[in-house]
Amino acid sequence: MSSEGDGGAMARTDAPGGVRVDAVDVAGLCGQGLQARLGEIARAESGLAAMKADTLGEIARRSGDGAAAHAAADAMAVSGRRARGEVRDAVRLAELDATRQGLTAGTVPVGHAQLIARAAGDAPIDDRFLAERAEREGYDEFRRTVARHVAETNRDDGTSVLERQRDARAAKLFTRASDAMTVLSLCVDPVMGARLGTVIAATERRLFRNEDPAARRTPTQRMADAVTELICDPDAKRPAGASLIVVADYDTVNHQLTGGRLGDGTPIPIGEIAQIAVDAEVLPAIFEAATGDLRMGRSRRTATDLQRAALALRDKGCVGCGIAPERCQHHHIDHWQHGGPTDYANLVTVCVDCHNVKIHQQGFTAQWDTNNSRYGLQPPTQPTDQPPTQPTDQPPTEPTAPPPAHTPNSSHGPSPTDEPP
Fold it and tell me: Theoretical Cys-Cys bridge with 158: which of 95, 151, 234, 349, CB 3.0 to 4.6 Å?
């Protein structure tokens, strides 16, 4: 591999199947050209990751995982923990032919390949199925796909996976040497993560409402304040709107709940729903687009509890980036200020960044994707630098609904009479 100056190649190799990315003057590229450039770089990174995995895997085969980790830490100047993770993934990728081939070809992103490799350590997986899905799904959507696939291939409804995740919980509290700031790092299982997310988001909303509009905190400052308040004042009243959304299907033949999952689609054992229901209000619901509570018209601007639960089930998180629904708000497809109603068919789930930056600053629009049967954000045909149509600092999310216990015959997309504009 060699590098050249301007006009040459950023990375190249003359061997078949090598990686090459030509250098260009990015200042002269349009918006679509920059996007295409990033895609080209991402494919090259996948190819390089495959080469690295091959090399680490061969060292591990010859000298053992420890020697490979030591070589990785020394040659790549990474921490020992990261080096061990790189070797573990490399060893697993050697047994995942479809993922390995997709990574080499640049069709499977690096992060997706890591998810597949780590899932292979939890349960038997269908490597080819996941590699095909990895080619067309974003990271957050694919993460949920992998989680569902692992749960489906487990005979115990995902219970053992959740137990392993809980055993792997970890936290660190340390002082950063560069600026003496204290850093809190926390790793918990998906169920606890969803619980924390809802409580933190509810606390952020309260802090936002109590702020001076002329002296707003940044979103990251507000989250830091919310977390520290919850830790330092554990006896404070549970924030309003902090209910956890969980979903399950009802098997009318066997009269039992099946397919337990969090609001973003992450699968959880059915037994977890029973545990959650002990401390939470349960909202059994059949989501039909024609029900009155899902069509509020112009009578109110914000979504109702039932609408929020239905939207969480349909969208499974932000339609722009996939972030969990408890950290999202709801956007009117036909804008409220232009007469748009607060109806289920006119609402989509979006995070603060996608709502303010992509939609209101960059001109993205919510469109129904018939191929994937879901909403997504589509960029404008022409890039726009127009100022935002509303303030960019919005509360983290609207209150979430009480957890629906089951959703038989639920509708995940718009009905024929409720097509998006």
Answer: 151
